[in-house]
Amino acid sequence: MSESLARLIHNLSKLPGVGERTATRLAFYILKQPAEYSRCLSQSLLDVKDKVGFCSHCQNLTEVDPCRICSDHNRDQKSICVVEDPSDALAIERTHAFKGTYHILHGAISPLDGIGPGEIKASELMNRLARTEVSEVILATNSDVEGETTALYISKLIKPLKIKVTRLASGIPVGGELEYIDPNTLSRALEARREL
Q1: Cβ(104)–Cβ(85) under 8 Å?
Q2: Phi-psi region for residue 58, left (φ > 0), alpha (ψ -120 to 50) or beta?
Q3: Paired residues of 61 in beta bridges
Q4: 167 pairs with which residues across the strands?
Q5: Cis ω on the peptide bond leading into residue 66 (within 30° of 0)?
Q6: Superfamily for 3-51?
Q7: Among 103, 98, 93, 96, which residue's Cα sits nearest to residue 70?
Q8: Tell me: the pLDDT tens digits for 92-118?
Q9: How far, in Å, CA of 89 to CA of 79, rounded?
Q10: How far apart are CA 65 and CA 53, in angstroms?
């Protein structure tokens, strides 16, 4: 195998979720494409590193500051949805159900992984809340231990500000059958029940 092909496979295999076999398939796919494809791919990789930064308001990834969501005056600027990662905000945006703004933490508190409150962008959220009139903060962190810990930490920070703090509902998925639902999910669904 050529040195450049081996180097490409090695670099592709460093991507999350990509093992050596997948990296090899990707490398051979790239090799079969016209040279223009490789130029476009390499340029887009360089552009992402050179042009993408953090929005000074919400910490989302953007090429313009503030980002398009924060600068959209049709959005409810008084409602902030706090998520762990940019991909979480993207998932919520795809629903077209949320019309407010976001705050991206870029992680969750995980002492076992050495991630404390200082490693997530919680202080940026608190600075934002101090300088902006906000009526509700929706905590949309994951429902795992780290996400729950992060939500609890942030809610305690916000409580003295007298801002309404809500948490995404969790429970039985649409179309789910009760007999196949795990006990924790079923328990949370019972706790979060609402009147019809």
Answers
A1: yes
A2: alpha
A3: 54
A4: 139
A5: yes
A6: RecR Domain 1 (1.10.8.420)
A7: 103
A8: 999 999 999 999 999 999 999 999 999
A9: 14
A10: 8
State how far the Cα of 170 lies from the Cα of 189, in Å rounded to an integer.
Answer: 6
Q: Which residue has the higher pLDDT, 162 or 175?
A: 162
User: Cα torsion for 92, 93, 97, 98, to the nearest 10°?
Assistant: 90
> What is the length of the chain?
196
Which H or E element spans position 156? helix 145-158
CA atoms within 13 A on the CB side of 143: 10
Judged by DSSP in three states, 101 sits in strand
Q: How many CB atoms lie within 10 A of CB 141?
A: 26
The residue among 83, 86, 81, 73 whose CA lies nearest residue 98 is: 81
* DSSP, res 69: T
pLDDT at 55: 97
Domain boundaries, the chain: 3-51, 75-167
**DSSP letter assigned to residue 173:** P
CATH architecture of the domain covering 75-167? 3-Layer(aba) Sandwich (3.40)
Which secondary structure element, helix H or strand E, spans residue 76, and what is its range?
strand 76-83
* Gap between the Cα atoms of 7 and 27, Å rounded: 10
